[in-house]
């Protein structure tokens, strides 16, 4: 556990990778604290304080909220002079899908020897789709073997991936197959062609260095938000590369165990904290004798 006397931000204390966009932090907050808890729209001041504790200036926090409303990701309601925000149905579905992956007990494991191979040809007239397709396939676990040829560990429902991303038209330009390597295929070789293995290892090790000591003292809402954003960064980088084709000390299992341990330690405290922020009744922690004040409030 970090020294309680050290009041520097956790990112500075732990050599934290940090660098998250405010929108990514807000999605992490909704996924880790709000989703499926019947939480009403949240006052803007709560988001400003939360992001402020994570190093985001007030102007940037408010600009992010406004931008997410314009993009159809947040719904804004007015209560007197105070703006409140909640996820739109479209954004809630995005967060829900991400949370299923975040909460998976073994997010980097797939049945041995199973792969999904995808090929597509993008006409010059649709080059506007290239970035969206690449981002969607990367999040779904694919790595590029060569132009227009992608591979992912395990069996991926490509049709659902493209439909969820609003890329149904790309499905008409693509073919995908369940595949398994033949005996002469050097799996470790094509893994390194398709994915930056050394960078993926570093993502895992960054996460382990930042969180292996467990959550530090202070605001559980800020910590669970940062934990989720850090973990999503790891999940985006590692599609579940099969450990048997990597170094013996491949760190994926260790980083998954660190995430699960930290989330379990933060979950109840974060739930109490958001209830206090919203003035909702919450259980008194056993043995405390009195309710806690909100960690975000001055």
TrEMBL record:
It comes from Pseudonocardia zijingensis. Gene3D superfamilies: 1.20.58.1460, 3.30.70.2650, Winged helix-like DNA-binding domain superfamily/Winged helix DNA-binding domain. Pfam families: PaaX, PaaX_C, PaaX_M. This is PaaX family transcriptional regulator C-terminal domain-containing protein. Residues 22-90 form the Transcriptional repressor PaaX-like N-terminal domain. Residues 110-174 form the Transcriptional repressor PaaX-like central Cas2-like domain. Residues 195-272 form the Transcriptional repressor PaaX-like C-terminal domain. InterPro entries: PaaX-like_central, PaaX-like_N, PaaX_C, PaaX_trns_reg, WH-like_DNA-bd_sf, WH_DNA-bd_sf.
